[in-house]
Amino acid sequence: MEALIAYISYPIFLVAYIKGVQNAILVCRASPEAHLHPEAGRLSIFLAGVLDVVFLGRLFKVNKALWIGEWLFHLTFVLTLIGHLRFILYSPPAWMSTTVCIGKYAGILLPFTIVYILFVRIMNRERKHFISIRNIMLITHICFLGLTGVLMRYMIRPDIISVKHFMISLLALRPVMPPPETLFIIHYLLFLGLLLYIPSHIIGAPLVIIAARLRGERAKLLHYPGRETTYD
Questions:
Q1: Mean pLDDT score of the chain, rounded to an integer?
Q2: CA distance 121 to 132
Q3: Quick one: pLDDT at residue 144?
Q4: CA pair distance 219, 221, nearest whole angstrom
């Protein structure tokens, strides 16, 4: 069973990457608004879309309470991932000791940001626009992932050397048996499940946000009185 966990990692990595690329292609094909008239300033619109991706600007306009939780979640999630780089780098650079410390505290905060996001979504008057079964499943999944990580760090600690040896062996395409600790196996399986979603979100979500801004600018051009606008 433990050896099987190591070998199923590769197809999951591949499927996750293909899924992300496929979703990105679908978004691009479904966005005819990208062909805006040059006067619309496509570069400025694109840059504004990038800022929306980084700072979640559109969400800030819609729901500021949810924006706080989402921004903190993404920040702590990224910092936690950076802190985990020590497990896949054979010889981590000296500066990584600082990121490991930051990632440790970010990993503690991560589950609390998830609980806050779920609370805000449920309490919102227009909750049908902010929460769905898919949202609940994803939020619960990430919450358990964060909780198992916190438990491993402070209560049931696996052999760190074995964990690092296992992760490096996967990247070297020479998988070895994973550490026998059950909590680590659960944590790793939860990560593999999340991995199926991450590439699609990282590639697709920014394109969706930028496409939405392009649609908004196109609508302004169509309703701007006295301005000549042409579309091919």
A1: 75
A2: 9
A3: 92
A4: 5
